[in-house]
Amino acid sequence: MKTTLELPDELIQEAMQLTDVKTKAQVIILALQELIKKNKVAELKAFKGKVDLDMNLDELRSRNVHLG
Predict the structure, then answer these.
(1) Is residue 29 part of a domain?
(2) What pLDDT sits at residue 53?
(3) Count: domains in the chain
(4) Spatial distance between the Cα atoms of 12 and 28, rounded to a whole number of angstroms
(5) Distance from chain centroid for Cα 5
(6) Domain membership of residue 14 as a residue range
(7) d(CA 40, CA 15)
(8) Has residue 68 got a pLDDT over 90?
(9) What contacts 30, CB < 8 A, 6 or more positions away?
(10) CA-angle at 58, arms to 55 and 61, nearest 5°
(11) d(Cα 40, Cα 48) in Å, to the nearest integer?
(12) Is there a domain that residue 32 lies in?
């Protein structure tokens, strides 16, 4: 998708230097990917302590599971 944006040159240049990315498009794609990843991790962290997994790890480890 082609999009026209007005972005601060200093911000783009600093991001390109920090990431060693060569093009503006690549640095914007990387920034979007990192933003998405950060938000997904935050969503997962919201579940911490809320999911009760009633499992015995020793029992699970001793299972003899044959796949295939």
Answers:
(1) yes
(2) 73
(3) 1
(4) 8
(5) 24
(6) 9-62
(7) 22
(8) no
(9) 19, 21
(10) 95
(11) 13
(12) yes
Residue type, 2: K
Structure tokens at 11: 């911000």
* DSSP string over 16-57: HHHHT--SHHHHHHHHHHHHHHHHHHHHHHTTTTT------H
pLDDT digits (tens, 9 = 90+) for 14-67: 999 999 999 999 999 999 999 999 999 999 888 877 777 777 878 878 876 666
Domain-embedded: residue 68: no
**What value does the mean pLDDT take over residues 3-7?**
94
Amino acid 65: pLDDT: 65
Q: Is residue 67 part of a domain?
A: no
CB neighbours of 15 closer than 8 A, spacing ≥ 6?
21, 27, 31
61: enclosing H helix or E strand: helix 57-62
